[in-house]
Amino acid sequence: MKHAPFRSVALFHSAGMALMSAAALAGCAVGPNYVRPSAPISPTFKEAAGWSPAAPADTLDRGDWWTLFGDPTLNALAAKVQVSNQNIIAAEAAYREARAVVSQQRASLFPTVNLTGSGNRSGSGGGGGTLIVNPDGSTSGGSGGGGARSTYRASIGATWEPDVWGRIRRSIEGSKALAEASAADLAAARLSAQGELATDYFGLREIDAEIAMDQATVAAYQRALTIAQNRYNAAIAPKSDVLQAQTQLFNAQSDLAGAQQQRANFEHAIAVLIGEAPGNFTLPAAPWTETVPDVPPGLPSTLLQRRPDIAAAERRVQNANAQIGVQTAAYFPDLTLTGSYGFAASELGHLFSSANSLWSYGASIAETIFDAGARRARVNQAKAAHDQAVAQYRETVLEALQDVEDQLAATRILARQSDLRRQASAAADQAEQIVGNQYKAGTVDYAAVIAAQTTAYQARRAMAQAAAQRQTTAVALIQSLGGGWKAP
User: Fold this and answer.
1) Segments of the chain assigned to CATH 1.20.1600.10
2) Which conformational region is residue 159 in: left (phi greater than 0), alpha (psi within -120 to 50 degrees), or beta?
3) DSSP 8-state secondary structure symbol assigned to residue 207
4) Is the pLDDT of residue 23 over 60?
5) Per-residue pLDDT tens over the stretch 215-263
6) Of 26-30, 122-126, 177-181, 299-303, which has the strongest mean pLDDT?
7) I need a surface site. Which of 114, 210, 415, 427 has the fewest CB within 10 A?
8) d(CA 406, CA 454)
9) Phi, psi for 102 (deg, rounded to 5)
């Protein structure tokens, strides 16, 4: 007889394994299997022959694209963005959260095992008498009522809901897709912060160049005012020449102050991007590296695949597709398997005796008979959400293609425009010098000097702004391709 409990355990184990195996073999995931939706694309990019769009492949290495500009200071700042930018840190935390959700969903595929133990002492009261508790736990004495008794239990049990219809597997599929979308969001946050840093940095360097121009302009206008004042003192020029020269000087000094304010704003923005308080960060003025990376002809189509926003949109379509299967599984019955094995005794010392063993196993099934169309509505809701995600994915692809076309066109046109700005500035500088000499000789009035000075000043600023715009457009093109020219 002492072997009977062990035979019972073996029977329980065999039956439970049989039920589990049957459920696993019968398992199938209901709902549509995922197929990446098509997107409206063109065979090539109109603005660059040899380019063509392709499917998302955002896991490809992007490389340190900012090094293409050859600026050591920018390289050092970009390295800080990688580890200190708060938006990137938040996106990384969201990605870890999404991965934890996947692990949580995957745990639902396995049984839940519980170990329990309890001890209880109970009795009933009576009139009179004295109740004595003996050292071995028994009671004696008392009268007029029932005695006290002890009960001890220890057991291990398991509960399992086999994923017969694939509800859990579809949930895992959806969670994995969302985790991958979160990873793409992290890449997008990183690329956005890096691009914003580069744009602000080039803006700051362009302002540094403008400040140097403004300082030189103020010095030149001060000399012009001195000349006008001397000519007025010598009764060669009217008072209006002095007043016009003062106006030019004061306007130039005002422009210099405005440029200094813009520089402060750029410096504060860069500080926030690298995770530092603006009051603790200073970026000294330095020579402007006006390098603009050349766009290689015939870049491979795989570059556009790396755009993280396209990847995130596509993974959200996959999640929406999985949710259709989750809701469809509600049409089928739920199966639950349970089993336990343990001991119960009135004395703690005899608790784990084979004679006191207990076991059980069983199965239950539940099916909703009537819910007034609630399940059908949830399936339709999931299908509508999927259609919405597909449309958003296709719109993301179209906007990405537009972005690339715009930046390619801007890159080509700005290169030509920058050359023209440089030529215009050189001509204006020469004209300013000639008119200044003519004024000193008394052959032209001061209005001609003002016109020449204004034209030369505007041409110099336009040249600097065109150079900065070429760099920021290169940054925008790199971002529109998902980061850099590098491809495997």
Assistant:
1) 4-111+164-334+377-480
2) beta
3) H
4) no
5) 999 999 999 999 999 999 999 889 999 999 999 999 999 999 999 999 9
6) 177-181
7) 114
8) 33
9) -60, -45
Contacting residues for 57 by C-beta, under 8 A, at least 6 apart? 302, 305, 306
Which tokens hold the place of 285? 């003025």
Contact 167, 335 (CB under 8 A): no
Using DSSP's 3-state secondary structure scheme, residue 165 falls into coil
Amino acid (one-letter) located at 209: A
- What's the average model confidence in pLDDT over 154-159? 92
**What is the per-residue pLDDT across 401-447, written as a single tens digit (0 to 9) for each?**
888 889 989 999 999 999 999 999 999 999 999 999 998 888 998 89
Does the pTM exceed 0.85? no
Pair of tokens at residue 423: 């030529």
User: What single string gives the DSSP state of each residue in 236-268?
Assistant: SS-HHHHHHHHHHHHHHHHHHHHHHHHHHHHHH
* Candidate CATH numbers 1.20.1600.10, 3.30.565.10, 1.10.10.10, 3.40.30.20; the one for domain 4-111+164-334+377-480: 1.20.1600.10
DSSP secondary structure, 66-113, as one string: GGGG--HHHHHHHHHHHHH-HHHHHHHHHHHHHHHHHHHHHHTTS-EE
Q: Which amino acid is at 157?
A: G
